[in-house]
Amino acid sequence: MTDPTRDAAYALLHAVFSKGRSLDSALDSLPRIEARDKAAAHRLAAAVLRHAGTLDAVLEPYLRREPPPEIRTILRMGAAGLLFLGTPPHAAVGTVVALTRSKKLVPFAGLVNAVLRRVVGAAPHALDELDKPRLNTPAWAWTSWGKEARAIATAHAQEAPLDISALPGFTPEGGTALPTGSWRFPAGTPVAELPGFTEGKVWVQDAAAALPAKLLAPQPGERVLDLCAAPGGKTAQLCAMGGDVTAVERDKARMATLRGNLDRLHLKAELVTADGTQWHPAAPFSAILLDAPCSATGTVRRHPELLHLRKPRDIEAMTVAQDALLDAATQMLTPGGRLIYAVCSLQPQEGPARIDAACARLNLKRDPLTLPTLPEAVTGQGDIRTHPGLWAEQGGMDGFFIARLVRA
Ligand SMILES: C[S@@+](CC[C@H](N)C(=O)[O-])C[C@H]1O[C@@H](n2cnc3c(N)ncnc32)[C@H](O)[C@@H]1O
């Protein structure tokens, strides 16, 4: 017998590995199945993506030659069930052998059965000697993360907690108050069950993602530009702080999501659907938030497919877009005005290197930041760099790079 969970998990992994799709978009296009099966399939696919390097190292001694990619996926699924999800051996092996047959890979069913039975035998100590963080991280990413690489990669083994931001004056019951002002709930908490969600008092936003708008600190009534705005977590913060916010977003569908999010929170901003590198405001702004598109390597805990899909050349391509947006934002800034640049990336090319280049090319200078509630995130240059290994005991946080610039 095959089962709906294994079928759906295989479909998710096929979409990621063979079609380069994100896990979220693959989940959206699954055929209709029970919510419980869908959640279990998501958990299994995410475990394979998070631990793929470790799973391959466990399987390696039992494979005489490279199996077809479909069989490697099936073996990883069986081993992930056994080693990371506590699936009983007969179920972990039996279901993926049945899956192998149902995918018309019958000649490999014996191999899958034999290899996974060896893993069952080795299971109690199969992971003991392995350098799991290193095995699960591509070499280019590990090298680029410098001395924090091990802490970051270790944190990637866990699902991220659910953080929220709340409107001023609202206290989300049952949440843990974080020093930076966000509220934390355990991973897997259903969003609709969050206190204040249906009343439009809170929105989902990682603790690190909440920092850029706080660091821009708009004055009540100040005209503020949010240049890459959707889905609008930071727009909501800027509005809630009393800013007179203009939110620009290029993608129509994402702008519709932003509009829905602001409506739910009863917040108002001027919404402009436009390419931020082409749009010209009627008057310049004294405060701009540029939360630029990026490789998103700071969000691997939430999107474990990212390290399988991203390649170094994608990061180079992002820096071109980031420079163009920095050029455009500078043109929209009043003399003496401040610009917060943020990316949810751990890659130095998308962070400090973009700011060094902007200061050399444009009429801008770095204005060093302080962050008394998270001093360990402040770099020697006065930028902020968070990563999932910070506050590790409390569940970590997304990786963000944030810099403040002023126009001379
Ligand atoms: C990192 S996300 C922004 C997240 C958002 N600030 C928030 O807190 O919810 C980057 C956004 O920039 C948009 N974008 C990318 N290039 C753009 C451009 N040239 N002009 C305007 N928006 C752009 C993307 O569609 C995406 O929605």
Automatic annotation (TrEMBL):
InterPro entries reported for this sequence: MeTrfase_RsmB-F_NOP2_cat, MeTrfase_RsmB-F_NOP2_dom, NusB-like_sf, NusB_RsmB_TIM44, RCMT, SAM-dependent_MTases_sf
Binding sites annotated in the UniProt record for S-adenosyl-L-methionine: 228-234, 249, 275, 291
PROSITE patterns: SAM_MT_RSMB_NOP
Active site per the UniProt annotation: 344 (nucleophile)
Alphabetical keyword list: Methyltransferase, RNA-binding, S-adenosyl-L-methionine, Transferase
Protein origin, superkingdom: Bacteria
Residues annotated as transmembrane: none
GO biological process, one term: regulation of DNA-templated transcription
CDD domains assigned to the protein according to its UniProt record, in alphabetical order: AdoMet_MTases
Keyword Acetylation set for record: no
Methyltransferase keyword on record: yes
Residue stretches making up the SAM-dependent MTase RsmB/NOP-type domain: 129-408
Molecular function per GO: RNA binding; RNA methyltransferase activity
Pfam family, one: Methyltr_RsmB-F
Family membership: Belongs to the class I-like SAM-binding methyltransferase superfamily. RsmB/NOP family.
The protein's name in its UniProt record: RNA methyltransferase
